[in-house]
Amino acid sequence: MPFEPAVSQFDLAILGADAPLADAVLAILEEREIPVGRLFALTLGEAEASATFQGMSWPHQDAAAFDYSQAQALLVTGHGAAIARLVERVRAERPTMPILDANAVDSAIDPAPAIIAARVLKPIEALAGLVSAEAWVTLPVAMAGKEGVDELVEQTRGLFNLESPDPIVFPLQIAFNLIPKMPEKGAPDYENVLAQTTARLANGASVGFTATTGPLFFGAAMALHVRTTQILDIELLRNAFRHQEGITLMEADLPAAMPTPATDAQGSLDVFVGRIRIDSKVCRLWLVFDPIALEAFQIAARVENWIDKPVTSMLT
User: Fold this and answer.
1) Which residues are CB-neighbours of 186 under 8 A, at least 6 positions away?
2) Could you give the CA distance from residue 132 to residue 227 in angstroms, rounded to a whole number?
3) What is the torsional sign of CA 299, 305, 310, 311?
4) Residues 189, 105 contacting (CB under 8 angstroms)
5) Which parts of the chain fold into alpha helices (H)?
6) CATH 3.40.50.720 domain range(s) in the chain
7) Phi, psi of 124 (to 5 degrees)
């Protein structure tokens, strides 16, 4: 069914407008013709840039000094303690304002690695049953916002100039390195959240996750090893993937045809599957996806729902 935009418009504030996630959300909102009125592009960084939306340029504004009564809803796409403190202040000052914080576990935004794992596990389970799975995932620095991207750029440049890296956003050097995801103070363990979300999305599937952040700007990769109850036929699996919405099968003998985060993932909602290996009841897969695009799509859907149901979302 084609999307029919609502008649009414509302004014939207985006906190963390300089983050890659904000750019992705705005692109989807524009593509789907979500009727946003004014856009308030808010940042705690340098307010010298602007956001592009609906063919217009919206200058960045100081998030700390902004009057949030001007907006009817708030999206939080930025990261960090300062952002979290500001969100708490806005919640206290405007308790009825709809706020979607992409960093909050209870935001109803499913983490992208869990979506991808569940999407691939479902056809495997249908063909051969499922015992358990293990996933190793490497996430891009863009998941930490603009600051994460800038830190990778600056550290890479500095190392080529024989300078010692100065970690700020990440706990250790991120350039030419891999950093395991560590539990953040006061926040649920990320790997546990991935496991619980995958189980919810994939019929209770038991998946153990090892998550890392790598020197990737955009795009993520996952090595998924699945143990099945029956021997899995590789041709049946390939055919199932070819007919599964949201999965792009990329298998070829040439290395250049193998999916990689830098060459295939960015901007797509699909998971790209390559290098399928089956050994009796063990299936090993290489997956590539764009976590920013997947999470931005969910945020845009929530904004659309706010407009479609203005009474329940308090957009009145």
Assistant:
1) none
2) 5
3) negative
4) no
5) 20-31, 81-93, 112-128, 146-160, 190-201, 234-242, 291-308, 310-313
6) 10-103
7) -65, -45
Please answer whether residues 35 and 307 qualify as being in contact, where contact means their C-beta atoms are separated by less than 8 angstroms.
yes
Residues of the chain with CATH 3.30.360.10: 112-292
Q: How far is CA 166 from CA 18, 142, 158, 255, in A?
A: 22, 18, 9, 35
pTM of the model: 0.88
CATH number for the domain whose boundaries are 10-103:
3.40.50.720
Question: What sign does the dihedral 264-195-136-178 (CA atoms) show?
Answer: positive
Each residue's pLDDT expressed in tens, for the chain with a length of 316 residues? 333 444 446 899 999 999 999 999 999 999 988 888 899 999 987 767 889 998 899 999 999 999 999 999 999 998 888 888 999 999 999 999 999 988 876 667 899 999 999 999 999 999 999 999 999 999 999 999 889 999 999 999 999 998 988 899 999 999 999 999 987 776 789 999 999 999 999 999 999 999 999 999 999 999 999 999 999 999 999 999 999 999 999 976 556 678 999 988 888 999 999 999 999 899 999 999 999 999 999 999 988 888 766 544 444 3
Largest CA distance in the chain: 62
Task: Compute how many other C-beta atoms are within 10 angstroms of the C-beta atom of residue 129.
Answer: 13
Q: How many residues does the chain have?
A: 316
In CATH terms, the fold of domain 112-292 is: Dihydrodipicolinate Reductase; domain 2 (3.30.360)
Which residue in 186, 202, 299 sits closest to 194, CA to CA? 202
Helix (H) or strand (E) holding 154: helix 146-160
